[in-house]
Design a protein that fits this description.
The chain is α+β, with helices and mostly antiparallel strands and 457 residues long. The protein has 11 helices and 25 strands. The radius of gyration is 26 Å and the shape is globular.
Length: 457
């Protein structure tokens, strides 16, 4: 039996909504057409993924059902963003809510899907009907099909295109500029007074030197300064800019692309080569995206460069997991997706370089028992570009140093073998409270390269 009720599922970083009604969009002006359909069906919320959206999702939610200011995202549109080409279906069991079926065709959610069923058999009946309409449909998780994403990967795909926009039902009494002015006035008057009341008293340098705990904490905190974490949002931005990269621009073919981190942004460049005798520089410039800065390094090669937001934040502002927690929880999760990658290397934990504090006579202060210390591990992944989205839920404490996308000829694409291969290099930050840290074994991957195994032993 199918359920027409919406399922609102609050998760760690987003609230997913299942069971929207999806309607196809034809022709241009998709924004206007989508809003017209939503108002016609008396919907309270709409999901419209850009100017080229092939379908619009609408929902009617009762007041008070969701928390105010909750970040609502369509689970179906997240799946559409993970699989933007081809025709796929996903049948996922949701604990306590039944079986959820969604189908996506060329990046657009198919009408009459995004539905919850009481049993798998009921969902299979609808799936059979879909296969009649879409003979090329592939069920995720089947043999020779891409890996079925879990709830964590779907949650991690949440972004602006999948957010539920509330349709306005009222007009504010005051104009928007007046509201902003009044809010700024209140902040100017209140914030300085609150800061004076709650600001902690500064501690003198002499006091810090006399207290080994404070001196060691200051030295420890200095080790993490300047280190950044990209996390889920920054990793998603990196993958989005690579997914949006055109494989062909006019008569030019993509060969590779590389992204490197800069303060608050990704700086990327790609290499294209002429693939036809008719290809020309003029043709490339005419078809290139507007945000590219193009340099022709030779008569056969073009090098476009562009930037994207990295959403990096200081590692000191992140709640880093402990070494023991990572080895138990994080590494177990990585082992569950290991088969989707050619290579997954995680180095041994190492303390961040630290200058041991001294007292006023130059003698080393004893290290306090149980002091929280920062550690780091090298991280390297390699596999199909489509597999990288499986990493999103697990990137909360990772800083990426380099991303390299290589295009190659593949005779038989498979789970680990794709024409678009992505390599990621980075650092995983964690903490340890023991006084003397000892190295311990970590993941031993199933890599065939003996050198890779030695790097992890």
């Amino acid at each position: 039996m199918v359920s027409d009720e919406l399922l609102v599922m609050p998760l760690t970083t987003a609230t997913l909504v299942f069971g929207l009604q999806w309607l196809p969009l034809l022709g241009g002006k998709v924004e206007r057409a989508g809003l017209r359909l939503a108002r016609h069906h008396r919907a309270t919320h709409i999901v419209l993924a850009g100017d080229s959206a092939g379908s619009v999702g609408i929902a009617t939610m009762k007041a008070g059902r969701i928390q105010r200011n909750a970040s609502l995202h369509s689970a179906a549109q997240n799946v559409a963003q993970l699989f933007s080409t081809g025709t796929i279906a996903l049948l996922l069991e949701l604990d306590g809510a039944g079986f959820w079926l969604v189908a996506v065709h060329e990046g657009a959610v198919v009408a009459r899907t995004d539905r919850l069923f009481g049993s798998s058999a009921d969902a299979q009946l609808v799936l059979s009907e879909l296969r009649q309409s879409y003979p090329q449909l592939v069920l995720l998780g089947d043999a020779q099909a891409p890996v079925q994403p879990g709830l964590g990967a779907i949650e991690a795909a949440s972004s602006h295109p999948s957010s539920l926009r509330a349709l306005r039902r009222w007009t504010p009494i005051l104009p928007w500029p007046v509201q902003v002015f009044l809010l700024a006035l209140v902040l100017v008057l209140l914030v300085p007074r609150l800061w004076q009341n709650f600001r902690p008293a500064p501690q003198s340098p002499a006091q810090e030197l006399d207290d080994p705990v404070q001196a060691w904490k200051a030295a420890r905190d200095k080790t993490i300064q300047g280190r950044m974490v990209h996390g889920v949002q920054g990793t998603r931005s990196l993958l989005e800019t690579l997914h949006q990269l055109p494989v062909r621009v006019g008569g030019w073919a993509l060969k590779e692309a590389e992204c490197n981190p800069q303060p608050r942004k990704w700086r990327c460049h790609a290499r294209y080569e002429r693939s036809t005798v008719q290809a020309s520089n003029s043709e490339f410039l005419a078809a290139a995206p507007a945000n590219w800065l193009v340099e022709f390094t030779s008569i056969e090669q073009a090098r476009p460069a562009w930037e994207a937001d990295s959403f990096s934040i200081p590692a000191s502002a992140v709640h880093l997991k402990t070494l023991a927690n990572n080895e138990r929880e994080l590494f177990s999760s990585l082992q569950s997706i290991r088969t989707a990658f050619n290579q997954m290397q995680i180095g041994r934990p190492a303390p961040l370089p630290l200058s041991v504090p001294n007292d006023e006579k130059g003698r080393a202060l004893p290290k306090p028992t149980g002091l929280l210390m920062y550690l780091s591990r090298s991280l390297r992944l390699s596999g199909p570009l489509r597999s990288a989205s499986l990493m999103l839920p697990h990137t909360g404490s990772i800083e990426w140093n380099k991303a390299l996308l290589v295009v190659r000829d593949v005779d038989k694409p498979s789970l680990k073998n794709s024409s678009l291969n992505l390599s990621l290099e980075g650092v995983l930050y964690e903490t340890e409270t023991s006084v003397a840290h000892e190295s311990r074994p970590t993941i031993v991957p199933a890599d065939s390269d003996e050198d890779h195994r030695q790097a992890l032993d």
